[in-house]
């Protein structure tokens, strides 16, 4: 699992870096590189300059050269009604890229244009008047009083350039814009604005739509810039966008997070190195983060430890089921020479006590009161003292011993005494010799 995530992250990283590093100077450069699919591309107009890269729409099919399209938020046909005073209606245009970036594209292009259309009924533009009802604002914030199709000709629309506008109902004179007829007929003034030194349009102003019969619709198209020989781009004074806020920065951050997650999973489920066990034990409560490979020394609180149970070995015949534990060490005495013949002496006095125990932590015998200790003694085995031949019961846990009969003790004592008497008798008796 961890290796799959890590592998995916590495592939994603390689692809992402390739996308970022594969950006183009402009749409024409993308077309020259073999791109044929219209779509959104990342461009970097000044390449090594301070202007950051940005995304535009590149059209490779509608013209011999690539067309750079910069969209805005007012491209839809918009109704204008209820604004009677000159310029009372205000529409500020917001583009997808900054004005500094647009200016760089415009300067890098051979030509640019933007379509402007106004549909009207009982609503005049009045561009030729000293106080027009409508106008548009250019890139630098200046008011422009010419319409699409009449670039640089103040007070005129496209029809005014060719002399095809509607006539004034009173004087029958040809007007400079169709909408200036201000009648009950739906009329249109439209065309392309083509002065790239002032494009794009940044604001639209309208009026003369306050009466019930007065109405208008405006449509402003995106800015279109056509590739050609590049001109010198003016110095860019805008403050560069921080790298972490750019698209490339965000992609790299996401990739780093995915790689980190992949490494953690790989260490947890695959490697489980010794240093990782230490980190796991120290910071995760032991095994909370690495139970999958059992790399800790025991389960964490609330977890069940998995233990492999070995099959129970069968007991052999040599195993003792009674005395499973070894008895305490026997008391050793100096070795005595065994007598040639056992002689019992009955005058040996019996021991004063018949109950003896040995301290668990000492090799000395300790005589205890029978009435105090006998009731607490529980034997779990029997043995014979090899030195004395005495039989005794013992408790393997406490180390206590109890002589089983006192007669054995008397016999053992008499053996020692009789052995000494026989030795003395042998030394004093003189053998007799029979004479022939």
- Under CATH, the topology of the largest domain can be stated as Jelly Rolls
Coarse structural class: alpha+beta
**Rg computed from alpha carbons, rounded to a whole number of angstroms:** 57 Å
Count the domains.
3
Give the biggest beta sheet: 7 strands, antiparallel
Descriptive overview:
The chain is of the alpha+beta class. It folds into 3 domains: about 5-155 and about 185-250, Jelly Rolls, CATH 2.60.120; about 270-310, no CATH class; about 355-425, no CATH class. Helix content is about 25%, strand content about 20%. It is built from 8 helices and 16 strands. The strands form 4 sheets. Strands 1, 2, 3, 4, 6, 9 and 11 form a 7-stranded antiparallel β-sheet that branches. The radius of gyration is 57 Å and the shape is rod-shaped. The protein starts with a helix and ends in an 8-residue tail after the last helix.
Describe the structure using short key phrases.
Jelly Rolls, 436 residues, four-stranded antiparallel sheet, alpha+beta, disordered N terminus
Layout of SSEs?
Elements: H1 2-21, H2 27-32, E1 39-43, E2 54-59, E3 67-70, E4 78-80, E5 89-92, H3 99-108, E6 111-121, E7 135-137, E8 143-144, H4 158-162, E9 187-193, E10 203-206, E11 215-226, H5 247-271, H6 274-283, E12 356-358, E13 365-367, H7 370-373, E14 381-384, E15 391-394, E16 401-403, H8 407-428
Antiparallel strand pairs: 1-2, 2-3, 3-11, 4-11, 5-10, 6-9, 6-11, 7-8, 7-10, 12-13, 14-15, 15-16
Helix pairs in contact: 1-5
Transmembrane segments: 243-267
Protein name: CNTNAP2 protein
Keywords: Membrane, Signal, Transmembrane, Transmembrane helix
């Amino acid at each position: 699992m961890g290796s799959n995530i890590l592998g995916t992250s590495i592939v994603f990283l390689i692809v992402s870096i390739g996308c970022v590093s594969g950006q183009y100077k402009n749409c024409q450069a993308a077309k020259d590189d073999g791109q044929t699919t219209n779509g959104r591309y990342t461009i970097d107009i000044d390449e090594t300059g301070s202007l950051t890269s940005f995304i535009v729409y590149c059209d490779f099919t509608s013209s011999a050269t690539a067309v750079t399209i910069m969209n805005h938020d007012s491209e839809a046909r918009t109704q204008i009604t209820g604004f009677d005073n000159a310029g009372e209606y205000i529409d500020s245009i917001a583009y997808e890229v900054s004005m500094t970036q647009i200016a760089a594209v415009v300067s890098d292009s051979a030509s640019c244009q933007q379509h402007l259309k106004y549909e009207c009924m009982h609503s005049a533009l009045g561009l030729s008047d000293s106080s027009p009802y409508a106008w548009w604002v250019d890139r630098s914030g200046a008011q422009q009083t010419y319409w699409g199709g009449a670039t640089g000709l103040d007070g005129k629309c496209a029809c005014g350039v060719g002399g095809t506008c509607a006539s004034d109902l009173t004087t029958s004179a040809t007007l400079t814009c169709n909408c200036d007829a201000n009648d009950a007929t739906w009329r249109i003034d439209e065309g392309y604005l083509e002065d790239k030194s002032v494009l794009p349009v940044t604001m639209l102003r309208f009026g003369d739509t306050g009466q019930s019969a007065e109405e208008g619709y405006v449509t402003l198209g995106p800015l279109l810039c056509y590739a050609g020989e590049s001109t010198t781009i003016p110095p860019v004074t805008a403050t560069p966008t921080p790298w972490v806020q750019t698209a490339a920065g965000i992609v790299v951050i996401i990739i780093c997070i995915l790689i980190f997650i992949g490494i953690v999973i790989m260490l947890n489920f695959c490697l489980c190195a010794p240093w990782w066990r230490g980190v796991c034990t120290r910071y995760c409560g032991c095994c909370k983060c690495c139970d999958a490979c059992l790399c800790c020394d025991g389960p964490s609180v609330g977890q069940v430890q998995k233990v492999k149970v070995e099959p129970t070995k069968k007991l052999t015949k040599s195993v003792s089921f009674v005395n499973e534990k070894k008895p305490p060490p026997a008391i050793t005495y100096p070795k005595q020479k065994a007598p040639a013949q056992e002689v019992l002496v009955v005058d040996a006095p019996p021991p004063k006590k018949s109950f003896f125990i040995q301290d668990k932590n000492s090799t000395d015998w300790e005589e205890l009161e029978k009435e105090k200790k006998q009731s607490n003694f529980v034997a779990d085995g029997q043995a014979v003292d090899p030195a004395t031949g005495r039989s005794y019961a013992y408790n393997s846990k406490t180390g206590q011993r109890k002589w089983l009969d006192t007669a054995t003790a008397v016999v053992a004592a008499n053996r020692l005494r009789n052995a000494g008497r026989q030795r003395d008798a042998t030394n004093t008796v003189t053998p007799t010799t029979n004479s022939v």
